[in-house]
Amino acid sequence: MAEATISGATHPILENDYASEWMGIEVLALSDGHATIRMTLRQEMLNGFGMAHGGMIFAFADSAFALACNPATPAPGEENNITVAAGVDINFLKPAYRGQVVTAIANRRSTVGRSGLYDIQIFAADPTQQPAATPGELIAEFRGRSRTISKK
Q1: Rounded to whole angstroms, what are the CA distances from 24 to 19, 77, 111, 123, 152?
Q2: Which residues contact 56 (CB under 8 A, 6 or more apart)?
């Protein structure tokens, strides 16, 4: 089970999220419609060119998207709802490499009824050259379209 925490609280969607656990995702910030996460790129996350596999960057951004879409504490009457991806697009701008720390910053742009629109920016930084407060260079932009549905 993933144990990513924010101020001692675990987000419920991470409890059985084995993909996010395997990726080593750390939750840095969470609020309504926002999530900031990070992870370090490992060897098994690289493609044959020695750079981060696009699927790893996509999955990382998708985890930030899910955290931004779903409140850590649902409002009364919303406990049986979940918000899922209805569609996504990603644009890869620069490569990232083993040992770099990647940070995803997800923000809700709009919600109308059960549909939402989210932008996620993904940054990569060399931990030995970047100040801790800087997420690094922008390497990808992910746009997610969400839909709130009933849990099964």
Answers
A1: 9, 32, 30, 16, 28
A2: 23, 41, 45
The H-assigned helical ranges of 2-113 are 18-23, 54-69
Domain edges within the chain: 28-150
Which residue's entry shows tokens 């992910």? 142
Hunting for tokens 């549909």 — which residue is that? 115
DSSP 47-68: -TTSBB-HHHHHHHHHHHHHHH
Q: In which residue are the tokens 């101020």 written?
A: 7
d(CA 97, CA 85): 27
**Residue 55: both structure tokens together:** 């699927």
Give CA separation, 128 vs 5, 30, 72, in Å: 25, 26, 33
Confidence of residue 78 (pLDDT cuts 50, 70, 90): confident
**Is the overall model pTM greater than 0.85, yes or no?**
yes
Q: Mean per-residue pLDDT for 13-39?
A: 93
Rounded distance, CA 103 to CA 142, Å? 13
Identity of the amino acid at 82: I
Architecture of domain 28-150: Roll (3.10)
Within 10 angstroms of residue 139's Cβ, the number of other Cβ atoms is 22
